[in-house]
Amino acid sequence: MSNFQSISFFYPELILTVVILGAIIYDLFIDKSISGRVGWVVITGLAFVALAIHFQNGLKTTTLFSDAIVLDPFASFFKQIVILATILVSIVSLSSGELDEYRKGEYFALLGIITFGLFLMVSSIDLIMIYISIEIVSIMSFVLAGYLKKKARSNEAALKYVVYGGFSSGIMLFGLSYIFGLTGSTNIFQIQQSVTQLDLASSTALTLAIVMILAGFGYKISAVPFHFWTPDVYEGAPLSITAYLSVAPKAAAFALMIRFFNQTFADGGAMNGLDSISLTQLPWPEILSILSVATMTLGNVVALQQESIKRMLAYSSIAHAGYMLLAMPVMSGDSIYAIMMYLVMYLFMNLGAFFVVIIVKNKTDGESFNDYKGLGWEMPIVGAAMTLFMVSLTGLPPTAGFIGKFYIFASLIKGGSTFYWLVIIGGINSVVSLYYYLKVVKYMYFEGERTDKILFPPNTLSGALIITAVPSLLLGIYWNPVANWIQNSLVFFIQTL
Amino acid sequence: MDQLNNYLYISAILFSLGTFAVMTRRNGIAVLMGVELILNAANINFVAFSRFGGMNMDGHIFSLFVIVLAAAEAAVALAIVINIYNNLHTINVDDAALLKE
């Protein structure tokens, strides 16, 4: 579709742009002490964007802006996920004590811009668009990770993020340039067409390019061995941003990865609910299996030794990226379904866990296990919610985390006996993770003094906690709505050349 | 075709130098210069493929976009380095080591 016609299908993004600009301008006119109001502007605007995306539901799948991005239910699903994460994080940021010293206007505007970048990321089908969207998200994340200007730790997190981020996106770009040279196109459907016709002599160059691109994606989802930035950045960045980075960009990167790898280097069968057949000489299932096993094992084992809960959750998010990667090697419709299901569950339980960390940080200004002593008695609701999130992150029934893991393992077993060993390793990893998740519960209930004084967090934080805690439990018992939603979203734009 | 190969050699060398700089240099600015080298190596590839590979204009367009994004990234990166210098009085990447296990 031509550029001019596309605009009428691009209105969620246009509304978002207006909201961002409005937030920036509004921030110019108000005093620093009330700059949190910009947050409410952004939250309201995002709610309208979510509504706009909802209205696009029945539309026919199509490409926009001369084949730069697509409009399909798969992209809309991830846009809604991103919106939900952004709204929750924005609500929590309003009462996060860390940010109080700083002007909050730009903070919310930057969150809006990241959301815009993630929208493009989940719908891009062109190498140029893929690179631009990844960079929009990265550059804004660098700024937000270093938002606490006066804190050396936050500065350091931003520096490490910018160095690793620039390096890995540079490597990915170099890989993309070889793909362009080999296939002569930047559109992923035309690339797919050309990849089938490549001769054997080009397969080395193609392999090199794919490995380089994998480095870029691996960095975004913090898969081993591209995870080095994750613990440091997650620890140094403001807590609300850590929560955001561990969910939204990861979800979008998975969406991009599913679309890109299934469509470019395989025949795209998974898009129709079948098994994808690889078009290259590369042993995809083996490579992705090893990546996922390494990712979750490293995440879980290192998380065991952490003193700080924030850092523990950073490693735990690496481990969860590993669980989601587990489903990638199968390359079937079921595995895409499982990853989407896991992402929904992960969104609620992981954001919830970080919100509790924010509440504790507001109270004690600390993030270590010792700050959680007696929390279960002092703040009963927060303690109960944290227990729920920890159980859910471990993946025990009857919580959301169990359903997520169940679908992942089910897709592996359906995939055939070559994947059974992944199920076993995934199971062992879940058991290992039980230790460090329940350690938090132990500190909350069995260490420190029992008090009769009961504290409540501020309203916005309690609200966000409830929005994340209720689904974490409820979706473990009744997940049909989510299942239906995902089933309806498994429609991709496919171009036959 | 020979002309294309020459450009590919140059870009491969630039890419290697950039990677080497990122890995060995400890000065924050020098590391960022390494990243710029990698991006420009990719740019050379795009333009060379477009010009000599008998392809369309996409490569030229791509490299223009990369230049713009590299500038944006450099602006943010330098701001972060200045911030580091204000707080820690060093721009050595290794000296910024508060976050450790």
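qc> Chain B touches chain A at residues 11, 15, 18-19, 22, 28, 31-32, 34-35, 38-39, 41-42, 45-46, 49, 53-56, 58-59, 61-62, 65-66, 69, 72-73, 76-77, 80-81, 83-84, 87-88, 93, 96-99, 101 (CB under 8 Å).
qc> done
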